[in-house]
Amino acid sequence: MDLFEYQGKEYVARFGVPVPAGGVAETVDEAVEVARTVGLPCVVKAQVKVGGRGKAGGVRLAADLAEARACAEAILGMDIKGHVVHRVWVERASDVAAEYYASFTLDRPNKVYLGMLSSQGGVEIEEVAATSPEAIARLAIDPLVGLDLATARAWVADAALDAAAREGAAALLCDLYRCYDEGDCDLAEVNPLVLTRDGAVLALDAKVTLDDNATFRHPEWAAFAATETEDPREQLARERGLTYIGLDGTVGIIANGAGLAMSTLDVVNQAGGSAANFLDIGGGANAEVMANALEVINTDPNVRAILVNIFGGITRVDDVARGVLAALDRVTIASPIVLRLDGTNAKAGRALLEPHLSDRLVAVPTMLEAAATAVKLAEG
Ligand code: GDP
Ligand code: MN
Fold first, then answer.
1. Alpha-carbon gap, residue 296 to 302, rounded angstroms
2. List 11, 99, 189, 244, catalytic entry
3. pLDDT in tens, 255-269
4. 295 flagged as catalytic
5. What does pTM read for this prediction?
6. How far is CA 49 from CA 6, 229, 335, in A?
């Protein structure tokens, strides 16, 4: 789960990371009220789960309450890269002397945590990585050892942060690390991490992704989940009890078993296409499940073709075939369907479908061919 900036700041602050005083507002009047409380000058910031708000005009400085009002009026309702702003975060402005970058994330191939620290903050880290990779000091952290202050001090020196910022930054990084680790984050990123003119080091922005696998340990995360606007496809899939993840391609995918579903994604890629989703219908692929799966995929306007890839084991292909036919009776599917059905009772299953095949319902014997057909239909 990705958090909004205001939630991320609140979360890192629980672990001692210093953040500016501020408050969230959903209306212009509320924003002015927060500005009055936190003090002036203040910064009004759009709360959307997308980067580059600054460049898009979603971060504005206000010297007095009239300006704060004007900023809130301009930002609330604004569209930033397709995200409509429903809330602003208003915080006491910081007198910034230098901007840095800091983050903790998982380095999966090396089985360690990865800390990244740079004296070039405020800009997107991908940009820094591309133009001056040497400006990023990377630190591999053994999860069993953690990050201690001595290591953090060496790290900030390595990243060449300004001398005045080093002690504060080292302490902040230790707190941010605890947030990442004990707080079960997938990502804890502060950009910019700033040094103010009076020598304070604080987090001016926070991007936090919580590890959904740890939800059971954090009943308090329910408050964050409440503001989450779920992908409507994923919401429908969850209501229907399907294991579904929305992607942004054009080939809808239905497969049985997570392994086959993932392989199907790969094969679609290999055929030059892109998957619109991951959908594992699991073991009991009956008519009901198949109809639900097709229905969910059908709500995705990007889908141009649907690839049904079933390898019958415990699942019997004739049941799946009945499911497909029942589903077609129940819902009008907007895209052509390509079927690759193999395994237990495949012959019987194919025989059931035979009379219904058309250019909208195509049966193909192999997985590769089926993917190629689906990709071609999606393009056509
Ligand atoms: P993002 O563009 O979505 O990453 O939004 P940020 O929260 O990182 O803000 C963008 C930029 O606005 C920062 O890099 C700062 O340069 C600037 N900014 C934000 N808050 C303040 C502030 O309190 N004082 C000053 N001087 N600049 C700020
Ligand atoms: Mn930022």
1. 12
2. 189
3. 998 999 999 999 999
4. no
5. 0.73
6. 11, 10, 31
